[in-house]
Each structure stands twice: as C-alpha cells, then as structure tokens.
Here is the input.
Amino acid sequence: MSLDPATVRRIARLARIHVEDADVALLQGELNGILGWIEQLQEVDVEGVAPLTGAAQMALRMREDAVTDGGYPERVLANAPDRVGDFYAVPKVVE
Amino acid sequence: MMPTGLTLAAARDGLRRREFSARELTDTHLAAIEALNPRLNAFITVTPELARAQADAADAALARGDAGPLAGVPLAIKDLFCTEGTRTTAGSRILEGFVPPYESTVTANLLRDGAVFLGKANLDEFAMGSSNMTSAYGPVTNPWTRADGAKLVPGGSSGGSVAAVAARLALGATATDTGGSIRQPASFTGIVGVKPTYGRCSRWGIVAFASSLDQAGPVARTVEDCAILLESMAGFDPKDSTSADRPVPDFAAATRGGVRSLRIGVPREYRSDGMPGEIARLWDQGLDWLRAEGAELVDVSLPHTKYGLATYYIVAPAECSSNLARYDGVRFGLRADGADLTELYEHTRAEGFGAEVKRRVLIGTYVLSAGYYDAYYLRAQKVRALILRDFTEAFAQVDALLTPTAPSAAFAQDDKMDDPVAMYLNDVFTVPASMAGVPGLSVPAGLDGQGLPLGLQVIGRPFDEETVFAVGAAIERAAGFTHLPEIRA
Amino acid sequence: MSYTIEGSTGAWEVVIGLEVHAQVVSRAKLFSGAATDFGAEPNSQVSFVDAAFPGMLPVINAECVAQAVRTGLGLDARINLVSRFDRKNYFYADLPAGYQISQYEHPIVGAGTVEIELEGSVTKQIGVTRLHLEQDAGKSLHDQDPARSLIDLNRSGVALMEIVSEPDLRSPEEAGAYLRKMRTILRYLGTCDGNMEEGSMRADVNVSVRKHGEPFRTRCEVKNVNSVRFVMQAIEAEAARQVQVWENGGAVDQETRLYDPARGETRSLRSKEDAHDYRYFPDPDLLPLVLDEAWVAELRAGLPELPDAKRARFVAEYGLPTYDAGVLVADQETAEFFEGVARGRDGRAAANLVTGDFFAALNRTGRTIADSPVPAAHLGELLDLQADRTINGRIAKEVFEAMVETGQDPAAIVESRGLRQVTDSGAIEAAVDQVLAANPDKLAEYKSGKEKLFGFFVGQVMKAMAGKGNPALVNEVLKARLS
Ligand SMILES: [Mg+2]
Ligand SMILES: [Zn+2]
Here is the structure.
C-alpha cells in the first residue's frame, strides 16, 4: 500500500495539519519510505494470535464516586490563548 | 569551588555528614551549567532561584535531621515532565508559553524526597527521535568528541538529560523511554540509564507520546545512583490506571547482589550480520565478565525481535496521532490565526509541530484510518503479542538477557537526518523490551575505535528490576569504565 | 391500523431505530473527580483531565459502571463481564482531547429488550442492540459573541449511556412510546433523571422508508433531538422528505441531519460529514474493564421493582384493569402514592379516587404528587369512611374538596361539619312524612301509577336531610310509605 498525493492531503486534513502543496511530494516520499519498510510485518504469521493492546497485564482499577477535583476555572483558563470571561474562545462555529 | 565529579551516592553521604552544604553543591552545578550549557544546549530552561530555594530547604532539613533520601541532590528534569510553575515545552513550539498548574507524580516524588531541580533538560520534540535533533530548542551536543572533531549527537530522545549528567552539570536526571530514549542516549554518552517495567513509574503529568510504551526512568553516572533515583521516582499512583500497585524494592541493595548462579540469556537473533565487529566483541566481553562472576550463559531465541521496530513504528505513531490531538491552540500553548476553527487547528498544528512529529502523526492517522486499521494497527498488535511471548518463553529459561544497547556509537549531528528509517534503526536493540514492557538497563562497557563510549543492555523479567541492577552492577565493576568526556565541568 | 405514508406511488412504511444518550446519575464524572451538577458557572466543574491538559490520565468511576450495569439489568440485557474503552478521534471545539472515550467493539451491555404499550393496551417488544458508556462533550455557545464561539467544559467528561435500539419501531407513536418507556425505566432505576429539557436525555433518530416487504433502504440519522414531541415530529418530517426523494426518482443518501422545530423540517449537517473517519482504537491509557460476577449479582439484587412487574402486580393484587395499572406505574411517585391509598382497601375504589378527583385536584391547584395538598393516608381514611358507611358517596366528594382546601384529615372534617350519614330510621321517617305532606299532588300522581316519581321523592328526602341520609334506608322507608 503506498500513498498518492490525494491520500496525503486527506490524512493531513484528518490530522488537522496544514500542508503546503509544495510539500506534498516530499511528504509523500517520506511516508511511503516508512510504510514500505513497515510492510515487512505482512510476512509474519499472526493466525489466531490475540492482539496485545498494552504492556500492563492487569484489569482496570475503579475509583469511588466522589467529587475530588475541579472548581478552579482560573487555573484551567490561565494558559488559554483567548477567552471571554470564564469561557474559552474560538472563531465562531457555524452549524 | 567544590568538585562536580562526585557520584550521587557520595554527594548524598557528604551532605548528610555536612561536609558541604546543599547550597554549595547546587551553586557549583549552576555555575557548571552557566559555563557549559551554551556549548551543550542540554537545558531548555534553567531555574537557579528555584534550585537555590530548594537547596536551602534541604540544608534546613539536614540540619533538623528530618531530611529525605535525596535532600540537596541537584538533578536535571527532562522537559517532558510537567513541573508546577515552571514552563514545560516537550521540546515543541506548540507548547510555547505553557506553564503547568500541576506537578507530575514522578517529579513530585523526587521533591518529596528533597531533590533540587536545576532546570528542564532538552529532548527530541515530544520525545520523538534518537538524536535530539528534532527539538524546537535546537540540538544537544554530546560532551564526547570524535577525532575528526565532528559535533556528535547525545542520542535521544533524552539527549539533554544524558548530556547534562555526562558533562557533570547534574548528578542525575529524569528521562523517559518509549522505544529506547533512556538506554540509547545513555550508551552514547557513557553513563547508566534504566527503563523500568511498564507501570513501575506513574505516567501522570508526563507529556504523553505513546501511552502503552512511555515509561519514566533515571539516568546517572553509576548503576547505584540510578537505583537510588528509581527508588524515589517509582511507586503506585492511583491517578494512572496503568500504574502497578506493588511495593518498591530496595534497588540500591540489589546492585550489590552479584550474579553468581544467575542464568544469563544470549538472544541469538540480536547477532545480526550487520553488527559492527567492535560491538560484537564488546558483547562477548560482557558475557565473559558475567561468566567469570559466576553466571551461567544460555543461548536463547527471540524470533520476533526483528519485527520489533516495524511494529513500534505502527503502534507508537498510532497512539501519538491521538495523544497529540489535544494540541489545538484552544486551551494552552501556541495558537495560529485561522478564519474558522478548522483553519485555526490546521495552521496551529502546522506551525507548532516539527517535521518528525508531523510525519509520525500522519503515519499514525493513516494506519488507524478506515480500511487500513486491520492491515497495519491490528496486525502490529498481534506481532506485539508474539514479541511478548518470545520474552515470556525466554524468561522461563533465564533470569536476564544481555545485548548491546545500540548498533553504533554516537554519530555526527548531520548524519542520518535525511533518512527517517535509517534514524529509526538506532532503536533496533532497545525497542523489543519496550514493546514487551520489561525492564532494561544500559551500562557503559567500553570505547569504540574512535574513543566513543559503547553500552551493554541488560533486560529482565517484568518487575524484576532487582536482577537487572545486579547484572548491570556486575558489568560496571568488571568494565571499570573510568573514561570521561572531553566537555565536562 | 399500522402507520404508513401515502405517496403518489402507494403506501410507504417507516423504519425507525433510536440511539438514546442518557446522562448517568453520579456525583463525579466518568474519568475525573469533577462534579456533574447542572447549571454551574462556566468551567467551574472542570478538572485538568476534562480539559485534556498534557499528561493528564483517565481513571474510571465505579458508580458510573454500576449504573450502566443496573440499566442493562433493567433492560433484560446481557451484561458483558469484559468490556473495553476505545478512542473515537475527531476534532471539535467542545472535544478538548480530540477524541471521545467510548466503547466501540466491546460494550459493557449487550442485547436486551423493552416492552412498549400502544393504544388498546397492545404491547410490542422493541429490541435493544447494546448499551455502552462514553464521555459527554462540552458546550459551545454560538450566540454570545459576534465573532467567537464560547466553550464551557463543565459537561466535558460527564458519563453517558448510549442505548441503541434495533430498527423495530414503525411509527412516530411507537418511537414516542419507546422513549417514554425508556425514561420511565431509567427513572425507576435511578440511573438517569430523564430530564430532556436539561439535556440529560437526548436521542439520535435513524429513519428510513420502504415499500411493504422490501429490505431496508438507506437511512438518515437525525441528531440530538431533545424532546419526545420533537422526536415524533422529526420522524414525520424526515420520512415525508425521504418519500419525496424516492418518488421524484432520486435516492436518499446516508447522512447526519438536524431537526428544526421552528420550520418543522430536517436539514443536512454537512459540517460533520467531511471528516467521517473516527479511527477508533483501544484507549492505551485504560485497561480492559473486568466485572466480578458476584458484584453484578449484588447489583441485580438491589434493583427496584420495575414498571412492567409493578403493573402486573397492581392488576393481580388490586384487581385493576391493565390500562389503569399502566397509568399508575408510568410514574414511580404516582405508583407509590396509589399504594399508600390502596394498601388493605378496595383497589378499584382507590384507583378511581387517585386517577379521578385527586388528579383533577392536582391539575386545578397546579401541584404535583411531591407537594400534594393531601397525603395518601388521608385519601385512604376517606375511603374507609365510605366503606364503614360513616359518609355516603355524595358527601365523600364534599369532604375531599374540604381536604384539598384545608389539608385536614377527613374524619375531622366530617365531625366539625356534622357530615355523618343519618341512619336513625325515626329521623328518616320524619323527613319522608314531611316531604309527602308537602307534595300532595305528586303523591296523587304516583298513586295513579306514575311510579318514576319515586326518584323525585328520594331526591326531596335527601335534600331535606342535607344529603346525609343513608340512601338505602331512605329507599326502604319511602317504599313502605308509598305502597
Ligand atoms: Mg449516534
Ligand atoms: Zn454516543
């Protein structure tokens, strides 16, 4: 499987990373280089192997239902590039 | 002015005996940073006021006699750990101006034990790299130099941490390892680095790269120093669902354990035809040392090791493509202009991320996207299961494995930059242990033909860091590695 | 009686499936310790986890898991002892992490069923495909600032249950009945307050149309409809639109749409379409959710009696018609109030009093059961006063109204107002004689055979006795005198 320019643009759009037209070709080359190298995995026999999601071999731990966090709007907003009162602000979204 | 060449253990004892004050020790290291950081670029942020305040607090505690185990010990903190009130960059433009309102669990543990933070160490952007060349804050220079005078990389992603420790700008440092980011740079700079078992150190407050692989660990100039640091860094954290609820053993004691009658595995697949002679010879040397110390060598097979890297370059990018989605210019960090929200996202992330991060985010987005998930991501997870099975079967026969840490010594700053895949090959020996979540340690064992340090890697069973420390210390004693980098305080 | 849309090419059947998003009742959020209260100050119930700050990690809330299991049990559904959390990746202003933690491949609850009641006490089983836990998103305010949208993350990370039905619904009425029944069950279980106005219950409506006997045609998803009425309207509007499209030779394309109640029509929501590749994958910050069978059994044992069971019991125990029982169990408080009145008494009489005079009084006074002007106990005593003949039915109505006004108990009212029924035959005979003496002409007519005047005499006697005469005795005495 190798990427064409349209696919490079599509995944860049999915990832919300602007790519200049001039850079598509270079990116396409690099990504195809990596993907081509990754292709070696196709030769591994994974018949009947259960996928391994992570290295931690245990079950999920649950916490109790208690309010222990939040209540500090100033701290969650302190780093915001733009805000209106205690709201984060972004360019108007039209639906 | 007092020397910076002390081991962390020696400095700790000197402080306890009041031979010198934490303030003196800290000032000495701050002066060393001032003198050498311009050449090394090991620190992105230096925090002298904070360090002196912490040093004074340590001196007070030492005077009172209620000092913690690390009271007054000056450390460098990889700039991937969120530190309350001190800007944290992850080596990326996209976190420009971000000052965390919280302290990571690992650094909080170190502060609890009295450590002094000198500043935030440079790293590859979001810990994605093996050379520290991808940092938005510039490359780090390896304090070791080569005959031809070329500027060398310190390895990565924890390049600033290892350079600072090797050049004696700090007694130790925190680092993180996702595919080799502690062990490979430790090998490149002639120091010791430990990647503990996945789940041993909390990930809470560490900027995430690949959640199922990221693991914090120490780098220092001796195995014992790493053991001392890991004892403080490690421990169960209810804020991290993947943190292991286990007691933290006495790692320092484990370094004195010896290797008598331990079974040491020699994974045959690691001995690839491409392996440079001097690395193969160093490996054999290490095995001889262990045999001489009373260990039994056993030939083992890790058949899926050769697929470790390719698996890694699907799993890690897939996870990072999702983990890095939060850097969108809305709540913190860089924001670029955009006519609408989508443009704001696309421009912010285009300006904020460097080339390597973009490559990995795009690869990750692709391997998870509709129609490719099964062929790439799902298959990679199955191969990962086979890699883990390899280790499980090997550890049924042996107590630990010994391998080289990296396929080469430190390379020049302008090498391999044009070929991502060639760069990825640096982690060929370290990635399998990361995929399996087992502990690994790199210890300096000798020099290559050009006088550059080479490390050997010890890999152990899950949560058996004690054996890893014992084997690492045995090699350290046998190697008697006393060479020093040219650039040092 | 089945619902169809008459098109120019004939009758069309409507096929409906519902995805209900129900906000879980819990103190704290699904993966953070921030509060879930409705209507708090902007971003005042947001932790660094909810705002997706660097290095923040999710830890699951046990109560949210328990609520999902209770709901699954309440829907007679399979509980999956092993489930998993996945990330649904997409960029949006109110989705701070750039992904929603949800359950894609392995939900916590599997197939179940809901019984709905339709006209003429017809019932229908609606299949539930699955129930999974997921995070709610924040809120975007688009009308507060001329150039900007404002983001409040208070709701970000609150636990939701997404309950997906099979495409078993065939009319707006069935969809409405399903939603109301679902809300009743959730409220009985206490796992969701079902408050659609506050958005704690929303529905995505999947609608398609087809000719009878056809396989399913393309469906459209009408997103985030927030009232039963709008859901029913949206189905009508969307089904009508699709019939139009097909009959004009076009084809319905699968898409997400919004219902506009003002216009009474649905419109396409292209904005979300463009990047429709969610790249689901297992969340590496979390581990498989493994439930202990004993714990599930414990939760099962703790379940309350659910509406269907309660209805059946009311029919059996109080001899109520199924319909009346259904009305009484639709709301848990009503059911409890009714039992407070009916326990140990004539169930039908209790049901008539509660659904009749009592409901009327609530409407009139604008009260609810919660702040009822009369406690259930008093209504019971009122029934007792009728049963033991202390008062008759006519007086009972008068006493009830007095109870509503004064809040006094019925016995006190009967005493203070001297409303006891008169059973003393002497007094009754006196009243009868007085009435007959006062109406000689009517008496003559009766004697000459106009027997239906008997009722007139009864009325007059009761009137003379201010309604307190025992109706049976009055009849007896009159008959004797007139024969
Ligand atoms: Mg939906
Ligand atoms: Zn949903």
Notes: Residues C 19, 204 surround magnesium ion (ligand 1) (CB under 6 Å). Chain B touches chain A through 71 residues (CB under 8 Å). The mean pLDDT of chain B is 96. The first strand of chain B starts at residue 43 and ends at 46.
